[in-house]
Amino acid sequence: MFPLDHRLLFALVIVLFFLWGMSNNLTDILVQQFKKSFELTQFTAQLVQTANFLGYLCMAIPAALLMRSWGYKAGMVAGLSTFGLGMILFWPAAVMGQYLPFLLALFVVGSSASILETAANPFIAQFGSTDTSERRLNFAQSFNPPGTITGVIIGARFIFSGIELKQPQIAAMRQAGTYSAYLHRELMRVVPTYVGLGAVVLTFALILSRMEFPSIHSEHENASGDHGSFRALLHYPKLWLAVVANFCNVGAQVATWSSLIPYMKQFTEVSERTAAGYLTATLVAMTLGRFFSTQLMKYVAASSLLWIYATTNVVLLAFATAHPGMHGAYAIVTSSFFLSIMFPTIFALGLKGLGPNTKLAGAFLVMAVAGGAVFPPILGFVARQTGSVADGYIVPLLGYVAVGLYGLMLRLSPNAQAQSSYCSSLSRN
Predict the structure, then answer these.
(1) Whether 86 contacts 109, CB under 8 Å
(2) How far apart are CA 75 and CA 219, in angstroms?
(3) pLDDT at 421
């Protein structure tokens, strides 16, 4: 399953999964921090996610064209360099003290993450035998949750101050003329975290730029040197089904996580930092789900596992919607175990058999991550209209319904029997 002759490069590319995982889940902390610092509604606070994931929609195709001409290494180094720049932009944004510059910085961060995912996911999927691409990508993606956990821990520790004012205290500070200064101090807390991470990312870009990358001609070029074309992709309906499924999956995942802290603040008595601890628990659950399910795929077809896990999440979020409170929060945390395999499995299944069109196809699957820009504000809108964050969870629930239908469709397809036979042969080895 692993390229033993390129173990160091394989390990370094896996670090990329850790880095963008850290960044993506810091945005869950920013939703709550900006809501407080800029006195935003739940809907406008969720524009943090929209700005971040809109970058995926805009940059995936340019990233694919870059790599089609210059290869995976160019894409990864360019993505890391832009990533570091976007994080450092948080400093001038905080000095300006306005919401829009932060959204622009988040757009740059999201764009760079799009470049990295467009490069790293297909690279890992094709960096070895195609028979084990789902397992290999699930293994690499298993290092994404530790990054997300690290991001949430760092955010909770260094961004959240632990100061949560009650309305009488806010009124008193407004009267004394000290409330604006308090909000500015809260806002400036994001700067050290993002600038520090930006420096780390730029250092890693320098390291990766010195590495030798192998050429993967067997998947991305045929005998005539064909690099694939957008027109050819129109003949692969399985790719477009995967794109739709990934859009719904990422949208549901981001909406589930980014609304957990507001959910707990509305329906429980926990503090922001305690709620952030539950967000960390969702990421631990996801990590365990990735490692466990990667091994389970030796015996169960990936498509079967996909629809079983998606159906389980529909039930869990239905419970969280109907029973808001601590038990509902436990259900949301548990759902992360089952969403663990969705992105890498959908991605790997969507790329199978695309030959020289793999890089361009990977770009569309990364563009589907823009679901993370759409679902959270819709959840926020529903929550605002109903007065209940719990009611908003119907939005990610519907996303998991779509993922389940995709998995079931694959399971019932003519190729499903071959996949089951392959899994059975693995279990006997």
Answers:
(1) yes
(2) 17
(3) 43
Residue 404, in any domain of the structure: yes
380 in Cβ contact with 254 (< 8 Å): no
DSSP letter string over 193-257?
Answer: HHHHHHHHHHHHHHHHHTS-----HHHH--TT-----HHHHTT-HHHHHHHHHHHHHHHHHHHHH
With beta carbons less than 8 A apart as the criterion, state whether 419 and 133 touch. no
SS3 annotation, 246-300: HHHHHHHHHHHHHCHHHHHHHHCCCCHHHHHHHHHHHHHHHHHHHHHHHHHCCCC
Q: What is the pLDDT of residues 191-249, one digit of tens each?
A: 999 999 999 999 999 999 988 887 665 444 444 445 566 777 887 888 999 999 999 99
Contact in structure between 67 and 115 (CB atoms under 8 Å): no
Asked if residue 222 belongs to a domain, the reply is no
The total of structural domains in the chain comes to 1
- What is the amino acid identity at position 222? N
Q: How many CA atoms lie within 13 A of 61 on its CB side?
A: 6
- Does 225 reside within a domain? no
* Mean pLDDT lowest among 168-172, 290-294, 337-341: 290-294
The predicted pLDDT at position 428 comes to 35
**pLDDT, tens digit, for every residue of 314-328?**
999 999 999 999 999
CB-CB contact of 31 with 48 (8 Å): yes
Residues of the chain above pLDDT 90, percent: 45
Which residue range is the domain that position 149 belongs to?
4-213+232-428
Nearest to 345 by CA among 404, 302, 308: 302
CB atoms < 10 A from the CB of 429, how many?
A: 5
Q: At 362, which CATH number? A: 1.20.1250.20
Structure tokens at 131: 């028979």
In a domain, 218, yes or no: no
Query: The pTM is what?
Result: 0.72
Other CB atoms within a 10 A radius of the CB of residue 327 amount to 10
Dist. CA 178–CA 213, nearest whole Å: 56
